[in-house]
């Protein structure tokens, strides 16, 4: 019971600990934490039911601080330097923080929520959603403010958070947002969708809007492991590596060999020598990352944003080697995308980005606003290595309409491309070279999830630990 209620216990004592941390004492928190973690680890090895060593360790450390308060000894006070911030006092961090920028928000805005850990986020044209560690779906919406407010200067939007209703007994594992709809994957491999039924993107066999999550019944015979939403189409992959698609079919984005829309899931043929591992949806195109870390793509290849042009060197492809559209999943043909193992990729409106196993980032497609990160706006159909990121190992990349976000292994957040309306998370204008985004974090952190849609970015950050006194 102690472990199960650990989060509520932390919240209950949160303000008491903040008060404690303003007093001066000579406790060494790292010593306390090490001792308590050793005790918890020993208990786990002895066969006791310990589900989360880190969580229980944190609770026990906080309990020590509360005991210190009761004995009148005060608490720890110290400082730690963290990325993007100055030295701060030892105030306990939230379990996670969610930031957004874009659409007029020029610097990262922390979204409100209870002290819970959000492990994954997704953004659509109108939605911002996240999945908590306990499997609940949380949504952020703009508050319309006080009624009767008079005209005045435009203020930064105020967001409110809410947990999705009607989720009793359902554990959400993953969420993906389209333009006006959302798809969820449960821990039992079931896909549920809700929102606008336009283009059949809910997969219920009709075009009807649905306000609450509804099971996609056509997939109940399969155990699904991932789902991805484009602006108006959906791709999903099963544990047997089967790929399904539904929604709008223009440009061949469904990979079915036609341009037709489908309002229920259709199985997609993948080249027999490839097995699907992950699916990615863009505005008018799709990608599959295979088990062997190769890219398959279909849909609009405008500006070679899918890497389907036959490119063997750094030279621009001849017209006969250029591909404008593919209606079935086709292997990427542009070097080095067909030579390097790709572990992550994302599709923007007219450009894409991919991360190799060695942590290098390549961009390809339109460069009208410098979104390829080549420090220029010269268009090129040839994939480019983002030289400005070579000092860090890139782990995740996300593409907006005309900008790009890259996340480093040590939590670095860099953006480049179009800067209008806060797309880059900075007040400066657009740039063709990666520059860091500063987050208001007072503790060490890792970025656990990032999503871009149109001109918006949503970012999840996990606090690592208490700040350690020097």
UniProtKB/TrEMBL annotation:
Keyword terms of this UniProt record: ATP-binding, Cytoplasm, Kinase, Magnesium, Metal-binding, Nucleotide-binding, Phosphoprotein, Repeat, Serine/threonine-protein kinase, Transferase
From what superkingdom does this record's organism come? Eukaryota
| Domain RCC1-like: residue ranges | 108-458
Q: Which cofactors are named for this entry?
A: Mg(2+)
Q: Name one GO biological process term.
A: animal organ morphogenesis
Record's subcellular location:
Cytoplasm
Q: Which residues form a coiled coil?
A: none
A Pfam family assignment:
WD40_RLD
Q: Keyword Phosphoprotein, does the record have it?
A: yes
User: Where do the RCC repeats start and stop?
Assistant: 189-240, 241-292, 359-410, 411-463
GO MF, one example:
protein serine/threonine kinase activity
Give the EC number(s) under which this enzyme is classified.
2.7.11.1
One annotated Gene Ontology cellular component of this protein: cilium
Q: InterPro entries, from UniProt? A: RCC1-like_dom, RCC1/BLIP-II, Reg_chr_condens, STK_NEK
Primary location: cytoplasm
**Family as reported in the entry's similarity comment:** Belongs to the protein kinase superfamily. NEK Ser/Thr protein kinase family. NIMA subfamily.
Task: Report what the protein is called.
Answer: non-specific serine/threonine protein kinase
Organism (species): Anas platyrhynchos platyrhynchos
């Amino acid at each position: 019971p102690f472990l199960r209620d650990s989060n509520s216990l932390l919240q209950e004592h949160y303000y008491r600990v903040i008060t404690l941390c303003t007093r001066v004492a000579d406790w060494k928190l790292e010593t306390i934490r090490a001792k308590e973690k050793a005790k918890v680890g020993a208990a786990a090895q002895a066969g006791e039911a310990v589900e989360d060593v880190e969580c229980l360790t944190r609770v026990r450390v906080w309990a020590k601080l509360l005991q210190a308060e009761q004995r009148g000894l005060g608490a720890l006070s110290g400082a730690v330097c963290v990325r993007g911030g100055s030295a701060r006092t030892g105030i306990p961090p939230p379990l996670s923080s969610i930031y957004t920028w874009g659409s007029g928000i020029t610097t990262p805005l922390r979204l409100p929520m209870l002290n819970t850990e959000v492990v994954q986020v997704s953004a659509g044209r109108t939605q911002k959603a996240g999945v908590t560690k306990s499997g609940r779906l949380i949504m952020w919406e703009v508050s319309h403010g006080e009624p009767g407010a008079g005209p005045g200067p435009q203020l930064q939007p105020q967001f409110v958070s809410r947990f999705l209703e009607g989720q009793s007994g359902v554990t959400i594992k993953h969420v993906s947002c389209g333009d006006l709809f959302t798809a969820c994957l449960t821990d039992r491999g079931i896909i549920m969708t809700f929102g606008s039924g336009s283009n059949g993107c809910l997969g219920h066999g009709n075009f009807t809007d649905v306000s609450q999550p509804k099971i996609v019944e056509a997939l109940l015979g399969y155990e699904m492991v991932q789902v991805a939403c484009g602006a108006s189409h959906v791709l999903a992959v099963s544990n047997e590596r089967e790929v399904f698609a539904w929604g709008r079919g223009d440009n061949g984005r469904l990979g079915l060999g036609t341009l037709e829309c489908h309002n229920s899931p259709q199985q997609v043929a993948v080249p027999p020598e490839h097995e699907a591992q992950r699916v990615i949806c863009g505005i008018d195109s799709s990608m599959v990352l295979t088990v062997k870390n190769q890219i398959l793509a279909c849909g609009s290849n405008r500006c070679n944003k899918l890497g389907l042009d036959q490119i063997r060197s750094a030279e621009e492809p001849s017209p006969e080697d250029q591909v404008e559209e593919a209606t079935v999943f086709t292997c990427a043909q542009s070097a080095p995308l067909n030579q390097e193992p790709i572990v992550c990729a994302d599709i923007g409106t007219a450009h894409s980005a991919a991360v190799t196993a060695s942590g290098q980032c390549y961009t390809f497609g339109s460069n009208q606003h410098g979104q390829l990160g080549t420090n220029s706006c010269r268009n090129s159909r040839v994939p480019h290595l983002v030289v400005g990121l070579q000092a860090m190992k890139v782990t995740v990349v996300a593409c907006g309409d005309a900008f790009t976000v890259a996340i480093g292994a040590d939590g670095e957040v860099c953006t480049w491309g179009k800067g209008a309306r806060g797309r880059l998370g900075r007040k400066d204008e657009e740039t063709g070279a990666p520059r860091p985004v500063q987050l208001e974090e007072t503790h060490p952190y890792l970025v656990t999830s990032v999503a871009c849609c149109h001109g918006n970015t949503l970012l999840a950050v996990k606090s690592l630990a208490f700040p350690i006194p020097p």
